[in-house]
Here is the input.
Amino acid sequence: MPVCPIYRATGKEAHSARGKLHLLARIDASKGSAAYADILSKCLLCGACRDICPRQIDIPSLIVQARGLIPKTSNRDYFKKYLARKSLSHPALLSTLAHVAETFNEQVLHRLPPESGLRLKLSFLDREKKLPSLSPSHQSPEGENSFQRHAAALEKGNQPSYFSGCLASHLYHEIAASTAVLCKKLTGFLPATPKSQTCCGLASYAAGSVNDARTLAKKNITAFEDGSGPILTSCASCFSHLRSYPSLFTDDSLWRERALAFGERVCEYSTYFLEQISRRENRIILPPDFGDKDTVLYHDPCHLRFHERITRAPRQLLDTLLHCSLTELPNGPQCCGQGGLFHLAHTDLSHVVQHRLLDDLETVSPSTVLSTCSGCLLQLQQGLAARKSRIRVDHLGVFLAKFIK
Here is the structure.
């Protein structure tokens, strides 16, 4: 109970893992009421309970299964989350929405004063509060997608491939560009990026739409089967879900075998680059403005901290490349409260979890907060922007690429 962000926020037994297990054991999810659906929706699926459970019960998976059985009419904000999932699973639609958001930002949002409450409500459309653009000198020489053209000329085999994820593909191309820069510098290759890849499917899975998650998984597995080298992804949540693809096909031996082969190739961002550094001699030159007063805090995404137990590699990568001053939160790593689509259904509760983290961040006051989870980045940026904090938020790859010479 003490490790559950939602129980800590509400103090209600029903919102703890124990309370949800009690409910699941006594009520058929297919007959669940709106109150039943509401309780099960109040879970971030962070995995903290599973990590500490002495019986090793996979509580998040049980909740996901139950969510898939609950009648749609009982689901809180079903239509809103349905639209979000459909947007993520259709790249063309998501790209169109991103273009609309950018146009809205240029023509409407900038007219609102910075302190406007409406502007804060619409901050997810505000480019100024998102990842800073890479300077031209740090982008690949022929633009954001040049590595796709270069990759065609490279030999097959151990050439890395890149699963960009929705954020880097449609909203913040700086992440994809910085990944190309780091790959070229640290591996000698520019990664191949299959055009037929799509959303990883985590949002659909978390909502209980397992069939949709399987459909997206099949598309991604097929998209990357032309190669045999490592598959790098710049999003921690995508990485965790891509690795879990075999669990989606327990009743389909053919697709499970293909999913296993795919999952074995997927690499975590910082771990992959650390391995490349150990194989090559690299010299990173620090810029003059990177001084002793600059402190960096790496935010651990829940999908890496609990699901994959990867916490040291990102810090080791920063220390190896930049020798920067790293600081930590006074109460240890915390969930940001974004939880995929959780923040859409439970905005107030999401803010409670978010503000606990932001309070700790402002206590140590680093110059920059880094992460590799798309949801964490957006949640941290929006929260700190609303507080008018001077703390910068950046993707780990974008931050490192700025210092590559």
The first strand starts at residue 161 and ends at 163.
